[in-house]
Design brief:
The structure is a single chain. The chain has one domain. Helix content is 46%, strand content 6%. The chain is rod-shaped and about 110 Å long.
């Protein structure tokens, strides 16, 4: 059985198979892919930053809670963050997720108690040692 082609089909096959995509189509598709990839990259970076900020908030809450418990138990402020570890209030000093080190925490000294002049000054609060700004525009060092 032989297949017969009508004259219009013969002309198409004689010129070769249908051409591929044109250059303009390829450029448009490439530009769209680049735009979508850049939007995805920005979203990814923002989600990583939001996650680090959530960890920072939680770490600050836990360390401040441990400092308050230390004061409630011993009626004095801890002399260093390491006192919280050595006395069992925290297992270890967490890494600051923004600076990625445990050594960058900034401590706020406690004010002297008016009735107790012999009391040793200690740590009243702890803050991040980062100089960067949060997504909401506030510096991490003020959290």
């Amino acid at each position: 059985m032989t297949m017969r082609l009508d004259p219009q089909s013969r002309r198409r096959w004689a010129a070769g198979p249908a051409a591929g995509f044109t250059l303009i189509e390829l450029i448009i598709v490439t530009v769209l892919m680049v735009v979508l990839a850049s939007v995805a990259l920005v979203q990814y970076q923002n989600s990583v930053t939001r996650a680090k900020e959530a960890v920072l908030r939680e770490d600050l809450f836990r360390m401040r809670d441990a400092i308050d418990q230390y004061y409630a138990d011993k009626n004095k402020w801890p002399q260093s963050l390491q006192d919280l570890v050595s006395d069992g209030y925290v297992r270890e000093i967490p890494k600051d997720p923004i600076t990625d080190t445990a050594d960058s925490w900034q401590t706020v000294p406690a004010e002297a108690e008016p009735g107790n002049t012999s009391a040793e000054p200690g740590i009243f609060d702890v803050k991040s040692g980062s100089d960067k700004m949060a997504l909401d525009g506030s510096p991490y060092s003020e959290w």
